[in-house]
Design brief:
Structural class of chain B: mainly alpha
Number of strands of chain B: 5
Number of strands of chain A: 4
Radius of gyration of chain A: 33 Å
Number of helices of chain B: 12
Distance between the termini of chain B: 32 Å
Largest interface: A-B, 55 and 68 residues
Oligomer: heterotrimer
Order of helices and strands of chain B: HHHHHEEHHHHEEHHHE
Shape of chain B: elongated
Mean pLDDT of chain A: 75
Strand order of the largest sheet of chain B: 1-2
Strand content of chain B: 5-15%
Radius of gyration of chain B: 27 Å
C-alpha cells in the first residue's frame, strides 16, 4: 500500500518554492502559466479534501493569475512596460527573500544542533522559594499573557451560559419530566411546563417536546396564529 | 538502563545523578530518579510502574541513589562549592549553601524577578483592563473570592487603592501602579494589548499541521513530491 | 565593597564569584560582576558607572574576575563536576559539560526539550536577523499567517515584545531573548551565521541552477534540431 505524504507547506511562498525545486524551474524565469496551473490544482486538491485553503493561498492565486494576464498582453503594447519591469519581478524578489530566510533557518538550526548537548541549570533560588511556599505555578509573565488572561476570562463567562449548564442536562431527563407532567394533565401549555425553570431548562423541555412529538407520544395544538401551543398526550386522546 | 547503570563506575553513576538533578526544571523526586535510571522511560505516563517499583530491586535502587546523592553532597562540601543538593517540594535540587546564600542577600541584583501565579495574572488582568474596579466586581468576573490575591498584588506593589466607589459600603477602588507598567514594559496603559490583538494570539489553529494530517490519509492525488512514496 | 573584596582570601573571592554566577538566572556579564563587587549597586540604573568603569582599577578588576572564573573552571573540572561555567548570551552561567550533556540528551525527560518545528525555526530566523520586527512584517516575508508560531515562540520565551512600532495600529515589535541565545549557544547576536553570506549562497545557487537549466535547454534544442534534420 502506498501512503502519500505531502510536505508541509508553510504558506503559498513555500508551496511555490516547492514547485520550483521539484520541477527544476529557473527562479529568474518562472513559466508563470504552468506554475499558476500547478498552484490552482493544489488549491482544488485541498478543497476536494474539504480543507478550506487559508486566505493567503487565494490571494497568491489571484496574484499569479494577474501576472499571467500581464504576460499575455500583446508584445508591442507590453514593450514599454517590460522595459520598466517584468511583471514577475516582485514575486521573484519575495521568493528569493523567503529562500534566504529558509536558508538562514537551516544555519541557525545547525547552531542549535551543535549546542544540543549543553543543558543549563534548571532551577534557581527564587523558584525554590516559590516551591517552598507551595505556589507552584509562578511563571514570568509578559504583556501578552496579561491580555490573554483577560481575554480568556471574558470568554469563559460567555461560555458558561452557553455550554456548561446545558451539558449538565440530558434530553432523557426532559422527556421523563414532560411524560410525568402529561400523566396528570390532559392538556398543558408550554409556558406552564416551563414555569419556574431557567432558560437552559426551557431549551431542554422544548427539545424533549420535539422528540416526543416525533415519537407521536404527544400532539401539539395551536388554536390560532401566535397563540399558546397546547400539548396533549396521545394516550389520553385514545382513552 | 538499570543493568548498564550498575555496570558503570560508581563515580560515573554519581555524575549522572548529579547532572540530572542539575538540569531538571523541577525538584526531582527520588522515585523519578529511579525511574529514569531503571527504565529510561519515565516520561511515558501510560507505562505502569507500580509493578516494578514494588519490587525489592526498586527499593534497593532508591537506597542506592540516596547513598550516591549523599556522597555528592560530601564532595561538594569538601571541595568548598558554595552550593549543594537540597530536598525541597518533594524532590532534589541544587541550591546555594546558607552561608553563601547570605552573601547573595547583600547583593541588590538578586531581588526576585517578579513572577505571578495564574490567579494573580488573571486578577491583575481584570484590574489592568477595567480599572478603577472594586473587589466585588473582580470577584464577579473571576467567580471566586479574590481577597488573598488582591492582597498579594498590593504587597507586590503592582496595584494600589485609587479611591472609593460611591455605592453601598463604599468599597475600595483598585488600579495598577507604575511598578506594574515597568514590570510589563509599558509606557502607559494605552499600550496594553487590545482584545483584537490578543485574539490573534489565542484563536488561531495550526492550519499547516491540520492539512498534513488530513492529506496523509489520502491514497492518491496529483501532486506527488520527492519524499512521498514511503511504504 | 572593592576594598573588602580584595582583603578577602582568594578562595573566598572565588566562592563569591561562583555563587553569584550560580544564583543568577540570566547569564551574568563580566561588567556586571565587576559592578557588584565594586560598588554593590548595579541594580540602580540611575547611577552612572562610566566614570568608575573607565578607571584602570576596573579593567584590573575585570581581569582579576576572569582569572578567578578560570580557576573555578579548573576546580570544577578537577573535581569532576558534570557542569562548568560557560560564556553564553553575553555573560557567564553554569551549564553541563558536553560529555554529560550528551548523557542527558539520551534520556527521554530531556531529549525533546530543544526541538523546534520548521515553522518555528523559520520565524525565529526572521526575527533574529530583522529584529525589532512586527508580526505583519514577519508574515510578509513568510507569506502566511504567523500568529500561532509567534505565540508559541513567546511561550517558549525565545522571543519577547520589545516595544510598539510607530506605524498605524502601533503593532508590537518582537526581538529575541537571552533564552534564545542560550538555546543556540550564542554569546551575542553578532555570532549568528552571517546573513550576507547566506544571501550570496542562495543567489549563487539560483544562478548555478539557471545556468545548468540553460545548458540543458540548449542541448535539448540541439538534439531536437538534429532529429528534425534527419527526418
Amino acid at each position: 500500500m502506498f501512503k502519500i505524504i505531502l510536505p508541509i507547506f508553510e504558506g503559498p511562498l513555500d508551496l511555490l518554492l516547492y514547485f520550483i525545486k521539484r520541477d527544476e524551474i529557473n527562479i529568474y524565469d518562472i513559466p508563470i502559466a504552468r506554475i499558476t496551473d500547478e498552484f490552482l490544482n493544489y488549491i482544488r486538491l485541498m478543497q476536494s479534501l474539504d480543507i478550506e485553503p487559508a486566505s493567503e493561498f487565494l490571494v497568491m492565486a489571484a496574484t499569479l493569475m494577474e501576472i499571467k494576464a500581464k504576460m499575455l498582453l500583446p508584445k508591442e503594447k507590453n514593450l514599454q512596460a517590460e522595459k520598466e519591469q517584468d511583471p514577475r519581478q516582485q514575486l521573484v524578489d519575495r521568493l528569493i527573500e523567503y529562500q534566504i530566510f529558509k536558508e538562514a533557518s537551516k544555519a541557525i538550526e545547525e547552531k542549535l544542533y551543535e549546542n544540543q548537548n549543553i543543558y543549563f541549570r534548571g532551577i534557581f533560588e527564587s523558584d525554590i522559594q516559590e516551591i517552598a511556599s507551595k505556589l507552584k505555578t509562578f511563571k514570568p509573565a509578559n504583556v501578552v499573557d496579561l491580555g490573554k488572561a483577560y481575554f480568556n476570562l471574558i470568554h469563559k463567562k460567555e461560555d458558561e451560559v452557553k455550554e456548561i449548564k446545558l451539558n449538565q442536562l440530558k434530553i432523557e431527563d426532559g422527556i421523563e419530566y414532560i411524560t410525568s407532567v402529561m400523566k396528570t394533565e390532559k392538556q398543558v401549555s408550554f409556558s406552564k411546563i416551563c414555569s419556574g425553570y431557567s432558560l437552559p431548562y426551557k431549551i431542554l423541555f422544548f427539545v424533549a417536546i420535539l422528540e416526543l412529538i416525533k415519537q407521536k407520544k404527544i400532539y401539539a395544538y395551536q388554536s390560532e396564529f401566535q397563540s399558546e401551543i397546547i400539548f396533549f398526550s396521545t394516550s389520553n386522546l385514545l382513552n | 538502563m538499570l543493568n548498564i547503570f550498575f555496570e558503570l563506575d560508581r563515580e560515573i553513576q554519581k555524575r549522572i545523578i548529579e547532572v540530572i538533578i542539575f538540569a531538571s526544571e523541577e525538584p526531582i523526586p527520588l522515585q523519578k530518579l529511579s525511574e529514569i535510571i531503571l527504565k529510561n522511560r519515565s516520561n511515558n505516563k501510560l507505562d505502569n510502574f507500580s509493578e516494578q517499583t514494588d519490587r525489592p530491586e526498586s527499593n534497593n535502587l532508591n537506597q542506592h541513589i540516596l547513598h550516591l546523592i549523599n556522597e555528592i553532597r560530601d564532595e561538594l562540601e569538601q571541595t568548598q562549592r558554595p552550593y549543594t543538593i537540597v530536598e525541597v517540594g518533594g524532590g532534589f535540587t541544587f541550591a546555594t549553601t546558607p552561608e553563601f546564600g547570605k552573601v547573595l542577600s547583600l547583593l541588590p541584583t538578586f531581588k526576585n524577578k517578579k513572577r505571578l501565579t495564574k490567579a494573580m495574572l488573571e486578577t491583575l488582568a481584570i484590574i489592568a483592563y477595567q480599572q478603577p474596579i472594586t473587589k466585588p466586581e473582580i470577584e464577579e468576573i473571576r467567580g471566586t473570592n479574590s481577597s488573598e490575591i488582591v492582597n498579594s498584588l498590593l504587597e507586590k506593589n503592582l496595584i494600589q487603592i485609587v479611591g472609593r466607589k460611591d455605592s453601598p459600603g463604599r468599597p475600595f477602588l483598585f488600579g495598577t501602579t507604575n511598578e506594574f507598567l515597568k514590570l510589563f514594559g509599558l509606557n502607559s496603559l494605552d499600550e496594553l494589548p487590545n482584545l483584537n490583538e490578543i485574539k490573534s494570539f489565542v484563536n488561531e489553529k495550526n492550519r499547516a499541521e491540520e492539512i498534513t494530517l488530513k492529506i496523509e490519509f489520502e491514497q492518491e492525488n496529483k501532486i506527488d513530491g520527492e519524499q512521498n512514496a514511503t511504504e
